[in-house]
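1st attempt posting a full record on here, be nice pls
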Amino acid sequence: MTIEWEISHRAQRQAGVTKYDPATEAITIALTWKADEHRAWEQFSSTVRHELIHAWQYHEFGDADHGSTFARWTDRLDTSQHCERFTTSKWWLVCEDCSGRIARYRRSKTVRNPEQYSCGKCGGSLHVEEADGH
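the predicted structure (as tokens):
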């Protein structure tokens, strides 16, 4: 298994991502510069281990997720299932029924027109709140 490595200077929400091309079986891990330039070595290396689990999943199964196969490796490799946020969102989509909150970093269609969408958890109506400091 060969893994290509990239540095992303554009990503805003994820410290790393593992990409897989099923046609070529190519695996690429992209690490986010903004996430890693200000984080301690422990956090950076945890991100690398997290993405390596995904690379292994793609190699073995052709698919990757944060399910039971992934969880089985997080303790062994001293990493977490999900990354801490390293940037602040500009908006929050808020469900009026279950109060669920989803961070948004770009002025997407959902942010511009929340009335056209519903909560993925309960189906409730959504509204947008500006995040603190924006």
